[in-house]
Write a structure and sequence with these properties.
The protein is of the alpha/beta class. The protein is built from ten helices and 13 strands. Bound molecules: adenosine-5'-triphosphate and magnesium ion.
């Protein structure tokens, strides 16, 4: 795993409010999720990482750069979409994209091609003040994606998007991660999130109470989910054997698949292989991992 950034004892106060308290984390190449209830500090950290606000104290580094002191350099490598992302209302969408392209020294063809990502060409010649919420969000996201950034920082990017646009966004994020782009994504849509996260960061009251690889977190919480298809196996026999493995915490039948929850991936995989089951897939149930991580923190 390749480190792409980190924070060290990072704090941010707004008068008496501690928005971030002593946050020390590493960020790695891949899809990093920022999760946590309203007001827990996700957007504050995202704004600090984007060089938009300054931390009260502590350190932060992204792609080897200090976001506050080297914002211009950083923004040439990173595409950002913030919550309440401010764009000049009097400008046309296309003018904003051309402005970004100019800053990044990108050709006009890049601007033209970017319009296809969310199919926004029909309205980018209109001024922004007339855009609907979703139209605005699609313009912001197009701007973030412009110029094939090395890193994407997205703060609840699906907000306001229709379902087709949401799917396009998820598709685009998958493509970006597959080609080595690091994505930092804050989201509340745990149950319907189709993306496979590599790392997760759980925020609560300004602290990051748990973070690390999804595999490790699932293991710690006993929520490694192993799934395999039931074919012509003798199911009763398989089930009995599975129940007798101490490390198995839950077994359930979902359609043609059997799902197992465990804290011990290796032990259970070995036992399954003894039963002749090798077609095992590991999945992560984000909503359940989230609620377990949060309840353990209380
Ligand atoms: N400009 C500000 N002035 C005062 N307090 C602020 C400011 N910005 C954020 N806060 C406070 O900092 C805390 C963290 O807010 P933040 O926006 O980071 O939460 P969040 O995790 O992004 O929440 P949400 O899921 O609702 O977007 C909250 O208590 C919030 O009220
Ligand atoms: Mg937020």
């Amino acid at each position: 795993m390749k480190e792409v950034g980190h924070t060290e004892s990072l704090n941010k106060s707004y008068g008496p409010i501690d928005a971030l308290k002593n946050v020390t984390i590493n960020l790695y190449e891949g899809l990093n999720l920022f999760l946590g209830p309203n007001g827990s500090g996700k957007s504050t950290l995202i704004k600090i990482m984007s060089g938009l606000i300054k931390s009260t104290n502590g350190k932060v580094e992204l792609l080897g750069l200090n976001p506050w002191q080297e914002r211009v350099k950083l923004m040439q490598k990173v595409g950002v979409q913030l919550e309440n992302h401010a764009l000049p209302k009097w400008a046309k969408g296309i003018e904003v994209l051309r402005y970004y392209a100019k800053l990044e020294k990108l050709p006009e063809t890049d601007v033209k091609n970017s319009l296809d990502i969310f199919d926004i060409s029909s309205y980018v010649d209109r001024t922004i003040d007339g855009y609907s919420t979703g139209m605005y969000q699609k313009l912001v996201l197009t701007g973030a994606l412009l110029g094939e950034p090395e890193m994407l920082i997205l703060d609840e990017p699906t907000r306001g998007l229709d379902s087709v646009s949401q799917q396009k966004l998820y598709q685009k994020i998958t493509e970006k991660v597959e080609t080595g782009c690091t994505v930092i994504l804050s989201t509340h849509l745990l149950a319907e999130m189709p993306l496979k996260a590599d790392y997760a960061y759980f925020f609560m009251n300004g602290e990051v109470i748990k973070w690390g690889s999804m595999e490790k977190i699932a293991e710690e919480l006993g929520l490694v989910k192993l799934t395999f298809p039931i074919k012509d196996l003798n199911m009763a026999r398989t089930l009995t054997r599975l129940m007798s493995i101490q490390e198995v915490t839950e077994v359930s039948l979902k359609g043609d698949n059997l799902e197992i929850l465990t804290a011990d991936r290796k032990k259970v995989t070995d036992e399954l292989e003894k039963l002749g089951i090798t077609e095992i897939t590991e999945k992560h149930e984000l909503a359940r991992i989230y609620s377990e991580a949060m309840s353990k923190a209380h």
